[in-house]
Amino acid sequence: MEKTKERKNWLEWVVTGISSVIVAFTIGILIYQMAVAEETPPDIVISLGKSEAKNDYYTIPVTVKNNGATTAQKLRIEFAMGEGADIEKSLLEFDYLPGNSSVKGWISFSENPQGKYIKPHILGYTSP
Q1: Is the predicted pLDDT of residue 37 greater than 80, yes or no?
Q2: All domains of the chain, ordered by start, with CATH?
Q3: Which of 62, 61, 70, 60 is closest to 101 using CA atoms?
């Protein structure tokens, strides 16, 4: 049995070189982020979209953004619409909200929320 070594052609060398640069660049970014990035606590920002009528209720899209670098887990947000005795509440929960990211959800009310003030209130979250 004869063993012969095949030589790499120029295309294989180019692909190997580009792959090596990408891997080195990715490792460099990860090391930089570990060394420089601050571990800021979760900074939750809530924004409401335009309401939409369904069969017998109204839905509102909600975008929740975490401007902090730390993850928020088990995030619970309560939304109250109306004032006084005419308050209707909706609850939204997210299991996991990574740092510097956002997530979408929907809340619903039985009455039309158009023109009414909806107050979000963060009930709590945990941070690993």
Answers
A1: no
A2: 44-126 (2.60.40.10)
A3: 70
